[in-house]
Sequence to fold (320 residues):
Amino acid sequence: MPGSLSSAARADLAARLGREILADIPLARAIGLAVSAWDGDSLVLAAPLAPNVNDKGCAFGGSLACVMTLAGWGLIRLAQDARGLAADLYVQDSALRYLAPVWEDFSAVARLAPGEAFAPFLDALGTRGKARLRVECVVALADGTPAATLEARFVALARS
Amino acid sequence: MPGSLSSAARADLAARLGREILADIPLARAIGLAVSAWDGDSLVLAAPLAPNVNDKGCAFGGSLACVMTLAGWGLIRLAQDARGLAADLYVQDSALRYLAPVWEDFSAVARLAPGEAFAPFLDALGTRGKARLRVECVVALADGTPAATLEARFVALARS
Fold:
């Protein structure tokens, strides 16, 4: 998903989302957020360590929470964009685990949670104007060790 | 807790923590974070809406997560400071609920979770060099309605 888009169209949507996030969300600018990759099934957002350190010099938990939340949000927003659905998308709840300190630039990879699928979410959003979807997200160290994880539920409300 | 400190000493510790957070954590500066009040049992951190908006113009969930996480962290750090214990304090996990959009400047109030107490935490940190403590935090609207909540567990590691 969305298999119907060309890779150029996917890259355009992802680049546009990156510009919108930076334009609309001041904290994303402070984080230095960048869209790294989107293949329809996963979205990767990247951030440099320097603007995101804590008092220990490793990544601030709040920065990790921001980047993982935005990765999950962006994953769903791009699915909406690919379907041409205009809807406001809100995070409803999330569970985070901080497993290891992050001493390097980091990326968050968001995917749908097990058992979730874009098609029924987008169908419900189109017909009922409201739909929910769960995502999971991970920040891994350069060696692949998971350093932080997020599970979150989002709700989309069609714009009238 | 800490009942043994004068209100002036409490105000000094809280002001020092506020300066340290802003000096050490760039994202706290971007958020415009300020320490509002600390009475030993609760810590209140405040943030203006403008630097913390999302694409809808209300408070970005990541900003709420940052302020609530820092409020919980700060509550425990101040208890450590009041006891004179030097320890690195990390968030281990957290659960967040976003209940209502926040269209105004906001504050997060952190308290210990039910069943938790500072004294056994500080005693364990002093004797064993490691201890955990759970907090809960809420961002309420001006009319008192809870808009976001966080439950989080922190671990403190004494500096050798």
Notes: The longest helix of chain B spans residues 61-83. Chain B touches chain A at residues 20-21, 24-27, 30-31, 50-56, 60-63, 65-67, 69-70, 73, 88, 90-98, 101 (CB under 8 Å). Chain B has a mean pLDDT of 96.
